[in-house]
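User: structure tokens for this one?
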Amino acid sequence: MKIAHILRRLSFQDWGGTEQVVWNLAKAQANAGHEVRIFATTALCQTRQETVDGLQILRFPPIYPWWPMPQSLVETLDRKGGNPFVPGLARAIREWMPDIIHCHAMGRIAELCIRLAGELKRRCFISLHGGAANVPAEEARSLKAPTRGRLPWGKLVERLLGWTRRVPEDADGIVCVGQDECEHYQAVHPHVMYLPNGVDMERYEPCRLHERRSLQEECRVLCVARIDRQKNQRLLVEALANHPQMELRLVGPITQPDYAEELKNLASERGCECRLTMTGALPHDSNELLSEYSFADVFALPSRHEPFGIAVLEAWAAGLPVIASDVGGLGRLCAAHPQAALTFEPGNLAAFENAFERLGKDAALVNQMRTAGLAAARNYDWRVLARRLVEFYSVAK
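Assistant:
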């Protein structure tokens, strides 16, 4: 089977949850004997064509349809949002003629994929990675803020093309990372599957071999997530100021630079900047990322909304206790493995601090959570998930 995976961007230097899902699914499908290619835009990576780990990656320049469009705005939209037209993409897919067009983006890229599939008499699947059914109003406003007040000439082009914006409803199948999304779209589409994120257990074995320290006197808290208001790292910085034994390490690409400055300024104002480290993005396959998991004591993810929370699986695979906000798919993931995580109400600083303090006082609880987390992570293997996905391609006809 020839499978084309399409996503908005794929930069190995600015890595996120969507990129990780696509990359691991594509590798597992290729290892199972399928012919797989990845198509993306040149956002954050100008390399037009490359082969990595046997997978061919093709990238095409995006066109952001607003006016005026200064370079600073292009760079902002490359990082997050943008909803571009990608004219070179259609030609490349037509030339390759895949059996399956699997799109991991929404908006204009998704509509292009749906219409191409109809033209080529192929099947199109849309994966939802970011809470498409339940994005909070604040997050939605944040996404639209960079282009507010600019002329949206793209809407005129859509009318000329006859685009309907029935995304993802017009796809042959919908793949949902979050259960909330799955339930939402099952009411309006006949072919919807829940496919959680996965983890490579073998990769994190060195982290599990690292000797963990007691949390009573000092504790290194790790958060692996893009620096973005959705992830709510501000709550962790506020907790850092209140707990002198805490060290906080934020690992992830900066998708909202003003928010990163806000975090740094808050730490400076509260006198805890010396205990805050922001590493920026670390390559997904780097030893540096493994070291972060190895030397951490607790993993925390305080997201305001989250369809799943792939970094929690990584933390469990690395042998870390987890504290996470009880929201969306992230809350459901933790609820499915209640002995592996402590959860708190989203945005509730006192509730997070209570959970953090419990770990510092109860070594037996910490050990129990580490063991339970490791057992939980084993349920999510990329090879198993890839097989389920290929089966879904065949069923959704």
